[in-house]
Amino acid sequence: MEKQVKQDIISKFKQSENDTGSVQVQIALLTERINHLTEHLKTNKKDNHSRRGLLMMVGKRKGFLQYLKDRDIEAYRKLVKELNIREIK
Length: 89
Fold this sequence. Notes:
Layout: H1 3-13, H2 23-43, H3 48-71, H4 73-83
Helix pairs in contact: 1-2, 2-3, 3-4
């Protein structure tokens, strides 16, 4: 991920001035990496190393989403809608 793209995502989802590691920021960054890797795997179908990394990122994002859902349901709903991802069960 390019530095400028990462900075744009952080500035969009940060909660305070110096925030770079809140749950919302981490979920947004993981979503960007997941989308990028998904496009890579569409052209490189046999790249199982990247596929494993993708599955691990999806699992990590799911854990962050569950944490946010338990702590702040409104922030969770807003983030899911903004990132255009499915809600967790």
